[in-house]
Every structure is written in structure tokens, then in C-alpha cells.
Specification:
The complex is a heterodimer of chains A (115) and B (116). Helix content of chain A is 0%, strand content 49%. By secondary structure, chain A is mainly beta. In chain A, strands 2, 4, 5, 6, 9, 10 and 11 form a 7-stranded mixed β-sheet that branches. Chain A has a 4-stranded antiparallel β-sheet with strand order 1-3-8-7, with no helix packed on it. In chain A, strand 5 and strand 6 form a beta hairpin. The radius of gyration of chain B is 14 Å and the shape is globular. Classes of the chains: A mainly beta (115), B mainly beta (116). At the A-B interface, strand 4, strand 5, strand 9 and strand 10 of A face strand 4, strand 5 and strand 10 of B.
């Protein structure tokens, strides 16, 4: 199935633990991004990548790291989990302008709880 | 920073009626706007988009109106159905400085409930 695949769907962490949220897309999209969604709020951009080997910070990058070694994969790492990172995380991908039509495709999300 | 906001957090409509969801934006550099639908437990799903050189765009049962003078965006859903119940987000887009990607800023969402 074409699209954006996120794993895991649910995760509970203890404060201070680290983990990696996985994101993969099979649409050959150049652009990938990570958002977090908190209750009553819209999605906020954590990190984004405009291509393999290129990443940059979004609105709320603190406490998260990313890397983009391939076009397909864009993992998000929580270095030392904190309760404030309890949220639903969405990965999204889109083509660049050079690839033609532009629009975001979102994964189904990872619900993370930090206790 | 600039943000995208919604006028109403909740909206209830009778099945078969038309729904109108409003959105205000403040970034004058935004040149592309998208409406997303998010059902419970799922990721946002693209509904319709509009570029800043347009005032109106129609899709299947949905219409987006853009008023650049007052920085206002609306989503109209015709003959609202129970399956339309969801949270609707507007998002505005402007280019990143890199030029090849675009920044997307989301509003906080409106919960649409369709009553039987």
C-alpha cells in the first residue's frame, strides 16, 4: 500500500527513557516532516527534511533528533523522554515543487505517553 | 509568530444541511491553503486546497472560499452526512527559505458533529 507508515501505533515510556519513532514512505517524496498534536491544538512542526541527508528544525524541536539517510525513512528520536512529550506524533511527506503537485500525506500517528 | 486560527471550536449541524467552517490566517506571505479532515484515531486527510491567486475552488460536495482582503478562509460542505463528523483543520503554507519545500502551519481545529 502506498502511503506513510508509522510504527509503533502506541507507546508508553518512563521519564528519561529514549526511543525512536519510525516513519517510512513509498511515494518517492522528497519532503518529510514530523508533527506533534496535543489536545485542543493543531499540529506543530518538530523537524523536517527536504531530502536525504538534509534536516532542519521546526517550531518545537527541543528534545527530539532526526536523521534522513534514505529518501524513504525519517525516524524521530526522543533522547530522554519527559511527560511534556506525551502527545500524538504524525509523520507526513510531500513532493517538492520540482516533483509537481504539492500536498501532504500523513501517517496514522503514534500515540506516546510518558509517565 | 504568525498563526492560523479558527472562529469556532465546535459546530453541530443537522444531517442534510450545509456546513460552513471558518478560518482566519495572519501570515500575508501564505500563498497556499489546505483543509484537512481528521477522524478519531487517524491522521489528517487532505480535503481540498486553494492557491492565493484563486477566490473559490470546488470539489465533491466541498467548496473552499478565500478572501485575501480580510485573510479569511472557509470550507463549505454541502448536504452534510454522518460520515462528515470529524475535526477539520485549515492550514496555511508559505515557502521555506530553502525554496524547495514548504512550511505548513495548522489551526487548532473545529469539531463538526452531524446530528441525525
Amino acid at each position: 500500500n502506498a502511503g506513510v507508515t508509522q510504527t509503533p501505533k502506541f507507546q508508553v515510556l518512563k521519564t528519561g527513557q529514549s526511543m525512536t519513532l519510525q516513519c517510512a514512505q513509498d511515494m518517492n517524496h522528497e519532503y518529510m516532516s514530523w508533527y506533534r498534536q496535543d489536545p485542543g491544538m493543531g499540529l506543530r512542526l518538530i523537524h523536517y527534511s527536504v531530502g536525504a541527508g538534509i534536516t532542519d528544525q521546526g517550531e518545537v524541536p527541543n528534545g527530539y533528533n532526526v536523521s534522513r539517510s534514505t529518501t524513504e525513512d525519517f525516524p524521530l528520536r526522543l533522547l530522554s523522554a519527559a511527560p511534556s512529550q506525551t502527545s500524538v506524533y504524525f509523520c507526513a511527506s510531500s513532493p517538492s515543487f520540482r516533483q509537481g503537485s504539492w500536498g501532504y500525506t500523513f501517517g496514522s500517528g503514534t500515540r506516546l505517553t510518558v509517565v | 509568530g504568525e498563526s492560523v486560527g479558527l472562529h469556532l471550536p465546535t459546530l453541530s449541524v443537522q444531517e442534510g444541511d450545509n456546513s460552513i467552517i471558518n478560518c482566519a490566517y495572519s501570515n500575508s506571505a501564505s500563498d497556499y491553503f489546505i483543509w484537512y479532515k481528521q477522524e478519531s484515531g487517524k491522521g489528517p486527510q487532505f480535503i481540498i486546497d486553494i492557491r492565493s491567486n484563486m477566490d473559490k475552488r470546488q470539489g465533491q460536495r466541498v467548496t473552499v472560499l478565500l478572501n485575501k482582503t480580510v485573510k479569511h478562509l472557509s470550507l463549505q460542505i454541502a448536504a452534510t452526512q454522518p460520515g462528515d463528523s470529524a475535526v477539520y483543520f485549515c492550514a496555511e503554507s508559505s515557502p521555506f527559505s530553502s525554496g524547495s519545500a514548504r512550511q505548513l502551519t495548522f489551526g487548532s481545529g473545529t469539531q463538526l458533529t452531524v446530528l441525525p
